[in-house]
Amino acid sequence: MRIVVAGGTGFIGRALCQRLANAGHAVTVLTRDPETARGKVYHAVNIVPWQGFRGPTDNLAKALGECDVVINLAGSPIADGRWTPQTKDRLRKSREGTTTAIVTTLAKLNARPVLLMNASAIGYYGPHGDEELTEEAFSGHGFLAGLCREWEGAACAAERLGVRVVMPRIGVVLGRDGGALTKMLPIYRLGLGGPLGHGRQWMSWIHLDDLVELLMFLLNHAASGPVNATAPHPVTNAEFSKTLGQALGKPAFLRTPGFVMKLMLGEMAEELLLTGQRVIPRRAQSLGFHFRFPFIAGALNDLFR
User: C-alpha 55: how far from its chain's center?
Assistant: First the structure.
């Protein structure tokens, strides 16, 4: 298949593009910085400049008019500091704005791709305590939930154009070369890691390899709508901290008080770090997807063996 990827130079995008190319697909990455992108993505991937929601859409229209599938992983990092008004605006535009630009361009084409796979996130559900959340659960409250609703709403507009839309709601992605672990590892390797706040908040995670394989799986199955992209066995933050310490051979009992995190990071700490969601990948499992790393210990041991 001919596949166009937005967000292909990111942590998830790089791994996915290499997997797609190795599987024999013709992959094109849309990027604002072609020179930098060439050093990041797999050598077999084609690079096309595009300024996202900010700029002209000529290159976008040409790329979309010549592809079978669009995969949109674009979005500014969500956990890079306090959520100032300017940060929130950037997060919205990089997600909902980019998705709207893609769908608006699709509407102008005579020949359209058959599938738009548009990333979302488990933040859609908002804080939910111990409740198990499948794809049928209602959206929650807070900035992240609202952001995900806007993001998914922009993607769903492509359904009116006859395009199948799949929205993987991605959890905390664990991999060697980016994502959440990159921020955690320096502290844990010093033996200074531990739970955040009370540690009872749920953490719905997925190994990067499983996420890439799940996205590959969804290319070839007639699923549409939201699909929870998380491992079948979420853990509490305290359990994750303990297991990460064991995988690294380091103690992990130094708790960071919640009030300290709120003072440092404000709303971002409250929504992203001190509360969580207990998400279950019911649709992926019902479709027959097999997780290579269903348990946190196996995932972390694989990453740090």
Answer: 24
